[in-house]
Structure formats: structure tokens, C-alpha cells
Amino acid sequence: MDGVALQVCTLWWRELVRFRRQRSVIVGSLVQPLIFWVLIGWGFRASFKPSGMPVGIDYVQYFYPGVIMLVLLFTAIFATIATVDDRRQGFLQGVLVAPVARATVVAGQALGGTTLALLQGCVFLVLAPLAGVQLGAPAIAASIGVMIVIAFAFNCIGLLIAWRIESTRGFHLIMNSILVPIWFLSGAFFPAAGAPLWLRWVMRVNPLTYGMAALRRALYLDQPHVLGALPGAAPSLAISLAFAAIAMWLATRVARHSRVIST
Amino acid sequence: MSALSASGAPLAVRTMESSAESAIEVTDLGFSYADRQALDAISFTIARGEIFGFLGPNGGGKSTLFRLLSTLVPVQSGVARILGFDLRSPSHALRRKLGVVFQNPSLDGKLRVAENLAIHGNLYGLRGARLRERAQAVLRRLDVAERAGDLAETLSGGLRRRVELAKALLHEPELLLLDEPSTGLDPAARRDFFNLLSRLRETDGATIVLTTHYMEEAERCDRIAVLDQGRLVALAQPTELKQRVGGDVMVINSAAPQALAQKIAQRLGVRAALVDGTLRIERPRGHELVAQLVDEFGGEIESITFGRPTLEDVFVHLTGHRFVAGRDESAREAR
């Protein structure tokens, strides 16, 4: 293992250890989406049938991939928020004066957060039968692959903001006012097909729409008839990969120019 | 070589020689934040093996200087060479030779002491048996080996500072930079910590540069530089600085200091400086004057203290204001 790989590994490992020792964070990032799913999914199941929802599934089932997406998003937020305080009075001060490239730091952090989000996402994969989703081995493998790409993108966006902003309050504000609407308008909550034209355009330019489509296609690999009108598999995957790559590039750029917070 | 430079060798030769001998060479280093100048063209040289202290009130420019020297912020103006490297383009090769102890904790509280050291070591390229060996050596040396398995957040303030120092020493730096290393420590822990630094210099020959606002800490440095409002107002050995104050120091508290100063000047021909509401007189053979003052103005004097000059007196002597002044400065810096 050469120097840079060792540095990435050690930073990745740190994220995992930290997370494991913070039970409340683990539970929080799982319970919140679970509550959403139970309340909204089962609550709306009988009454809410958004127009454009594919025939043959109920709302619990429709919402299920969106909930997985939310788990990835929340875990990424929890994993990256520590960066804000860490720069001011914490571990990252030491990293900033160490012989480590910023790109290496970002890579270690992003891979750590991605691993955590993936693990949390897999907890929800286990709940698939509750949603009436049958997962064969190929569907599981495809879903994990898509989750990795999306989780990585979320973590890079989290880092991009965390390396720039100076307070955790600001971080929460930005994440909640940007990422949650992006999630909301990705087809996680309601399908684009039934939405008004202007909203359909917003959803069409939302990169997460394609991540959502890729995840939906992976989860319902064995039940393609319940997909409804969605972007195709190849463009969805391609756009998701591009989204992750751009997010990583931006996060690295911001981290490189980030100065230590003055106190 | 040193005889040659002392007798006035050509400049080129002298700079070459001094960069080989000195740990830090700074010329006209300046730094400004958006709204204020933090450092105003300061110059100094620190020799290898020296314990060098930057003394000054909060907002004096110490923290900015520390950030510059530890490569956290880029050089804006002036030249700085550390261990022969140009600070304007800080390289990993330079960073590998620096050990940095921050004022704020840089340990990850959720990690055990040993884990903190392991990650730090990995970042500096240490691993495997060599890493374990180094980690054990520094922890034992700083007397915290038995806490290796504890979470960093469970340690007391004093122990945490030791582990911070252990972490900074793990990769065997040539130059140790410490920003207010004893902030938050009680006086006994502060003395212990400084004893550790002294021993370190003796055993390793490391150069130690620290910032402090504790006078008793500054007194123990080989040389100190006094920073006030971004300017270097003095640089010398502590004893030498104290000699600059003219003899003994008397501080008089009075209800009407201004009027008293005038009377002292008229009747005794002695100048008393008004510093932040108190009168200060610097004079050799001060005890004789004290008796005179009490005789003449006993009714107007609330209290009078008399003593050999401390570094605090030096600071007042140099800057004309008290050391604790500059609260508003620190408030501005905190912004």
C-alpha cells in the first residue's frame, strides 16, 4: 500500500469507527426515514393515488425506493456535517498541516460516508418484503451498485458544503433547503408523469430524478411492469455517474481552497 | 564560517550559512484579513535547538503568525523560510518535518488515544510495527501509555494536552510549533508541560516555537518576541528584556491619579506614567522612593506595590499599555 492509499484508508476507517461509536446518529438516520415511510406510505396507502403512478402497485410500494434514497441522503448529511466543526476545533486541523493532499482527504471522507450510507441502505433492503417488493440476487446486486453511486454523490455534495461553510447551523440550513427539495422532486414522492408541465420540467433537469429512476429500475428488476414511465436504464445510470463525478470534482476543488476557520 | 560572517562576509554567503543554521527566518512578513492588518512586516530569526516564545495579548498577531508558520494560511507578503523551505510554496517535505500542537483540541474524541495516534501516523506514512513502536515510545515518554485504550474525550484537560503533544511528536519532527499550549491548564499542569518541552529540547535537540500569553511561560523560553497589534516590539532573552526597564517598578493606585502624578513631578521631580488608571514609576533604588512617596502623599495613595520588573512590566514599558488591554482586539479576531 503506497502513501496515498494508506492515507485514504486511514481516513475512511476513521469515519466508520466514529459512526459506530455514535449510536444516536445510526438510529437517527434510520428511524427518521422509517417513520416517513410508515406514516406517509401506510397513511396514504388507501386514499392517495397520485396520477401517473404505475398500475399494480400501492403507495407503500411506490414510496419504498424514495425512502431508501432518503436513508442515503440522511446518512450522508450526518457523515459529512462533522467536517464543519472538525476544521475549527478538531481532528481536521491536524490533517490540514499533515503532508496530505486535500483530494486525498476528500476521497477518504467520501468513501467513508459512502460505506456508511450503503450499510444503512442495506438495512432497508432487508425490509423489501414489507413493501411487497421481491428482490432476487441480481436485483440486490444492481440496487447496491446504484446505491453506491448515489451515496457517493450525496457525500460529495455534503463535503462540498461542509468544507465551505463555517457553522453547522448553516450546513443544516443548506442541506435541508436544497437537498430535501431535490429529493422531493426526484420522483421519490410522486411520479413525474402525473405532475403539471412546469413541474415535469423541473423534475427532468433534476439530476436526482435519474438516480431515482436507476434505483427504481434496480429494485424492480424482476417486476418491470410496475415501473411506469421512467427515464431509461442507460441514461439514468450515465447521468448518475456523471453527477457523482462532478460532485466529487467540486468537493475536491472547494476543499483545496478551503482555509482554516479563524477563531 | 561563523567568524567569517561576524567579520562581515558577503551577503550571499551569510544567507546561505544562516539558512543552514537557523530553523526559521522571517523577513517583512505581513498578513491582512479582509478588514484589518494582523501582522505588520515582522522580521526575526530562530536558531535550531532554541525554545522560542511569542508573547502578546490576544489579537496581537500570535495566532496569525502560528497559522502562517504551520502552513495553514498562505504567505501574503514578505519572505519566510522554515528549515530551509520557502513557506510561499509549502511542500509535503516541509510538513513532514513540522510537529504542530493546536490551541483547540485536534484529537478525535470518539477515537481511542492509540487510534488517534495510528491515524496521525498513517497520514505521515508510518505504519505497522514501526508505527506501534513510535506510538508506544511517545506515549510512554509523556506518561500517558496506560491511557492508550481510552477514548480521547474521556481524558482530563492536562492529559489531553500530553496526548496532543505525543501526537505531534509521533513522526519525529525537527520543529515543534505550539499555539498557546497551556491554555486551560492549571498552573501546576502548566509547569509540568513546560518541563516536558525543556526535556524534549535537551534529548532531541528539537526546535520549539510557541505562542503564549502567560508571563511565567515566556520567562522560561530562551528568547521571546513581544507582539503587540501586529508589530514585533521587542526580541531578546527574558532577562535582557527585564533589564530594559529602568530598575524597580512601582505601581500606585489612587483615586485621582492624574493630580497625584502632577504633584509627584513637582515635589520629587519624578515622572509617573499613567497606564490604564494606575501610576507607574520605573526607577533604580525604588525602595527609597517608596518611603518618600508614602511620607509625602500617604493620604492620596490607596495602595503602592514595589518590585523587580516582570515581563508584564516590560510589556507596559514597551507598549505603554497593560497586557490585558486589547480585549476589543480579541473580540474582533474572534469574528
Question: Can you give keywords for this protein?
Answer:
heterodimer, A: 263 residues, mainly alpha, 10 helices, 0% strand, B: 335 residues, alpha/beta, six-stranded mixed sheet, four-stranded antiparallel sheet, 14 helices, 14 strands, elongated, disordered N terminus, disordered C terminus
Residue share in β-strands of chain B:
25-35%
Order of helices and strands of chain B: HHEEEHEEHEHHHEHEHEEHEHEEHEHH
Q: What is the spatial order of strands in the main beta sheet of chain B?
A: 6-7-8-3-9-10
Counting DSSP H or I runs of 4 or more residues, the number of helices of chain B is 14
- Please write the string of helix (H) and strand (E) elements of chain A: HHHHHHHHHH
Kindly name the structural category of chain B: alpha/beta
Number of strands of chain B: 14
Helix content of chain B: 40-55%
Task: Describe the model.
The complex is a heterodimer of chains A (263) and B (335). With 263 residues, chain A is an all-alpha fold. Chain A has helices at 3-20, 23-45, 59-89, 91-96, 102-126, 137-162, 168-188, 197-205, 207-219, 233-257. Chain A contains ten helices and no strands. In chain A, helix 3 (59-89) packs antiparallel against helix 7 (168-188), helix 6 packs antiparallel against helix 9 (207-219) and helix 7 packs across helix 9. The longest helix of chain A is centred in the N-terminal third of the chain and has 31 residues, at 59-89. The mean pLDDT of chain A is 89. In chain B, strand 12 and strand 13 form a beta hairpin. In chain B, helix 6 (128-141) crosses helix 7 (157-169) and helix 10 (238-244) packs across helix 13 (311-319). The termini of chain B are far apart. The interface between A and B is medium-sized, with 29 and 34 residues.
